[in-house]
Specification:
This protein is of the alpha+beta class. β1 and β2 form a beta hairpin.
Length: 231
């Protein structure tokens, strides 16, 4: 279990073992989706102690209504290691997910999934424990093996695939004209095409990122301000 991992070598070893279980195929139809959760985390320090808050917002896929919000705050012990952020975040994600009364059909993470050196971004890693399909949406590009992304054309929904060593790791999507793109990658139990359909369904005129992660991001900022102030 990830709880027993204490260093980079152990983290990478577990990622290499778990990535053999990744399934980039959808076992469901989009029409069956009812509840989709957005997941985000925020960090801060108090007296040299690092804290984080995980917020999950559950949305109705069709009406976009907010069904539930949950959060968890905790100190963080695992060090910051690029490519191993899931080991800092998973305990809070799983604890927060355990508080939900509405069981999501799918989780969208503010972060990467398959777009990762070992294909084990937070969205993919978390799916191994949530046992649900997951998608990763990142606002900044995680460059792997010095491969840059190709900028999509300037219109709503334009995209280019991120191809590294002949393999598609993810997709760069321009959700709105004249707005910088976002970076989508499947997490697990879902393919890239279905992931794209779902993300586009949650993009509105108010934001270039999908509603679930946008609302989760807003919640993390609100909670960080509240707990940091009270701390």
């Amino acid at each position: 279990m990830f709880e027993n991992i204490k260093d980079e070598a152990g983290a990478i070893d577990l990622q290499n073992k778990l990535n053999k279980s990744i399934v980039l195929k959808s076992s469901f139809d989009v029409s069956s989706l009812k509840k989709v959760a957005g997941v985000d985390l925020a960090y801060w320090k108090v007296s040299n102690i690092e804290y984080a808050v995980c917020c999950i917002v559950v949305i109705d896929y069709n009406t976009k209504e907010v069904l539930e919000k949950a959060h968890t705050v905790s100190s963080i012990d695992f060090p910051y290691i690029p490519g191993c952020l899931a080991f800092r975040e998973l305990p809070l994600v799983l604890e927060t997910a355990g508080k939900l009364k509405n069981e999501p059909d799918l989780y969208i993470f503010d972060g990467n999934g398959y777009l990762h050196p070992r294909h084990m971004g937070i969205a993919t890693h978390a799916s191994m424990y949530l046992n649900k399909p997951t998608i990763g949406i990142a606002k900044s590009y995680y460059k792997i093996e010095n491969v840059d992304f190709v900028v999509p054309e300037n219109y709503d929904g334009a995209y280019t695939d991120i191809i590294i060593n002949g393999e598609i790791y993810g997709r760069t999507i321009r959700t709105h004209k004249d707005v910088k793109p976002i970076f989508l990658s499947s997490g697990n139990y879902i393919d890239l095409e279905i992931s794209t359909v779902i993300v586009n369904n949650f993009v509105t005129t108010e934001s270039h990122i999908p509603i679930p992660t946008r609302l989760a991001d807003i919640e993390t900022h609100r909670m960080r301000t509240m707990y940091n102030y009270n701390g």
